[in-house]
Design brief:
The complex is a heterodimer of chains A (about 210) and B (about 325).
Chain A (H helix, E strand, L loop, with lengths): L4 E5 L4 H12 L4 E5 L10 H4 L9 E4 L2 E4 L1 H11 L13 H33 L5 H24 L10 H4 L2 H7 L5 H5 L2 H11 L2 H9 L2
Parallel strand pairs in A: 1-2
Antiparallel strand pairs in A: 1-3, 3-4
Helix pairs in contact in A: 1-3, 1-10, 4-5, 4-7, 5-9
Chain B lengths: L14 H9 L18 H7 L49 H12 L1 E3 L5 H12 L5 E3 L11 H4 L9 E3 L4 E3 L1 H11 L13 H31 L9 H24 L10 H4 L2 H10 L4 H4 L2 H11 L2 H12 L1
Parallel strand pairs in B: 1-2
Antiparallel strand pairs in B: 1-3, 3-4
Helix pairs in contact in B: 4-6, 4-13, 7-8, 7-10, 8-12
Keywords (chain A): Cytoplasm, Detoxification, Transferase
Family (chain A): Belongs to the GST superfamily. Phi family.
InterPro entries (chain A): Glutathione-S-Trfase_C-like, Glutathione-S-Trfase_C_sf, Glutathione_S-Trfase, Glutathione_S-Trfase_N, GST_C, GST_Phi_C, Thioredoxin-like_sf
């Protein structure tokens, strides 16, 4: 896999950040190609050829084209297992890691994304917040974080004893959420709060945040 | 074991008959053949204490038993007496149903919790069937709120179905259960189901993510509104139906283009990427009036006919009907 890796995306896109965090953790060289979403670059044919869903990020390495941030991170983590941070755990523990990756994708992300949209992005774009949606999703997030609190009381990280993709995948939405009123839901749970402080202070993540400034 | 004259998947031994077969085995002090399997993990012990879970089966194996310190010896019901009553039945005459017993034994090792009617449960069942892996379904009576009770929450903290257990692990989230099964039984059944090299796997992963993130939400919402809500006496939300149909149309246009370039989503072969779409797709096509979204698109229609015609999926549909 000597060919250069290319990531097409936007520094403020949570999904793009997910891939960048992974590449940084793995200490891998890559080319970042910004996609100007404001002018609809992601809907143009040249981009659709790499990601037919017209979303960021998209990934290329030689002839390989991939989309969906979590498929990209898994490809990188498995393909470069020996380099940088081990983001996976070989053998049977991989199954448990996989469970918590799915939890992030299906339980946490939909709810956290909606809250971030309402409380972070809409104000940025001057669109009024839908308070009913905020209330509904805060209630959902409360239930999810209760499960996380119990899990993190037994396990240092979500997937197991070490920092893995299961934790990394949360970084973009957590970072964003911590800048909104949702912060209180994380702060009020001791194990969750400690875990958030731990993962968001990782140098690889800080580099991604710096890119966005 | 899966090859042979007897169709083991179609014809598993029912517990009562198994009991009879085992009861007829003669005792012998000589050979160590056909020891009975005894391995139950702590989790299964916990489960056995759950009155909501009704199971009666024989724990059977035909390999040499390898009891270890970690394994507890438990005889469950029937021919071998109650817990602690060790009747050692060695049998020099291997019964004709040898392989059927062994198959049933393996079935005991893979437990899927939840009703086949659930889309996520059926995703796991289809995968197990594709991989030719025997299993038991452990009923979870959701109408009685069994999925929210403490014993169940121990194995699925979000109180949803499915959950999965085998002799060594407890899992939830259907797609990760399926990945585990494909990995554990890589050499069984459909060997290419999750790809045989990293590039194939990456291609499958991206379409499984697309299914989960782009296809699943709008199709799931439509299935709920149109197929389940009426049965549950929940009023339909016309706004949600319209919104999700619109979203789904856009997604299906993308699938249509993709399936014009490729026979299946991840390439030329049927993979888990396609299978993952079967549960929601099936309800959409067969239980709502939105089937035309699939059938009116040429490539999508062709793909749908092919994947829904797979033996494994047809068996899941059968299981749903008889549940």
């Amino acid at each position: 896999m000597a060919e250069i890796m290319k990531v097409h995306g936007s520094v403020i896109s949570t999904a793009t950040q997910r891939v960048l965090a992974c590449l940084n953790e793995k200490e891998l060289e890559f080319e970042f190609i910004p996609v100007n979403m404001a002018v609809g670059e992601h809907k143009k044919d040249s981009f659709l050829a790499i990601n037919p869903f017209g979303q960021v990020p998209a990934f290329e390495q030689g002839d390989l084209k991939l989309f969906e941030s979590r498929a990209i991170t898994q490809y990188i983590a498995h393909g470069y297992a020996e380099k940088g941070t081990t983001l996976i755990i070989p053998g049977k523990p991989m199954a448990t890691l996989s469970v918590w990756m799915e939890v992030e994708a299906h339980q946490f992300d939909p709810v956290a994304s909606k809250l971030n949209w309402e409380l972070f992005f809409k104000p940025m774009f001057g669109i009024p917040t839908d308070n009913a949606a905020v209330e509904e999703n805060e209630a959902k997030l409360t239930k999810v974080l209760d499960v996380y609190e119990a899990r993190l009381a037994q396990s240092k990280y979500l997937g197991g004893d070490i920092f893995t993709l299961a934790d990394l995948h949360h970084l973009p939405n957590i970072s964003c959420a911590m800048k909104t009123q949702v912060k209180k839901l994380f702060d009020s749970r001791p194990h969750v709060s400690a875990w958030v402080a731990d993962i968001t202070s990782r140098p690889a993540w800080c580099k991604v945040v710096a890119m966005g400034k | 074991m899966q090859k042979g004259n007897v169709s083991l998947i179609d014809n598993p031994i029912q517990p009562a008959k198994l009991n009879a077969i085992l009861g007829s085995m003669k005792s012998s002090k000589k050979r160590q053949k056909n020891r009975m399997l005894r391995y139950v993990t702590d989790k299964k012990q916990l489960l056995l204490q759950n009155p909501a879970v009704k199971m009666k089966f024989q724990a059977v194996t035909l390999e040499k038993a390898r009891p270890s310190k970690a394994n507890k010896v438990v005889y469950i019901d029937g021919a071998f007496g109650e817990d602690g009553d060790r009747k050692e039945d060695n049998n020099e005459d291997i019964p004709e149903d040898y392989r059927r017993i062994k198959h049933s034994a393996l079935a005991i090792l893979q437990w899927v919790y939840g009703p086949p009617l659930s889309t996520a449960v059926s995703r796991v069942l289809a995968t197990l069937l594709e991989k030719d892996v025997p299993f038991q379904i452990i009923p979870v009576d959701m109408s009685k709120g069994e999925h929210k009770k403490p014993d169940y929450l121990k194995i699925q903290p979000f109180g949803q179905v499915p959950a999965f257990q085998d002799e060594s692990i407890s899992l939830f989230e259907s797609r990760s259960i399926c990945r585990y099964v494909c990995e554990k039984y890589a050499d069984k059944g459909n060997k290419g189901l999750y790809g045989t090299n990293p590039l194939e796997k990456a291609s499958i992963d991206q379409w499984v993510e697309a299914e989960g993130q782009s296809f699943g939400p709008p199709s799931g919402a439509l299935v709920f509104q149109l197929a389940f809500a009426p049965r549950m006496n929940i009023p339909q939300d016309q706004g949600a139906i319209k919104q999700n149909e619109e979203k789904l149309r856009k997604v299906l246009d993308i699938y249509e283009r993709r399936l014009g370039e490729s026979r299946f989503l991840a390439g030329d072969e049927f993979t888990f990427a396609d299978l993952s779409h079967l549960p929601n797709g099936d309800y959409l096509v067969n239980a709502t009036d939105k089937g035309h979204l699939f059938t009116s698109r040429e490539n999508l229609g062709r793909w749908w006919n092919e994947i829904s015609d797979r033996e494994s999926w047809k068996k899941v549909v059968e299981m749903r009907k008889s549940s």
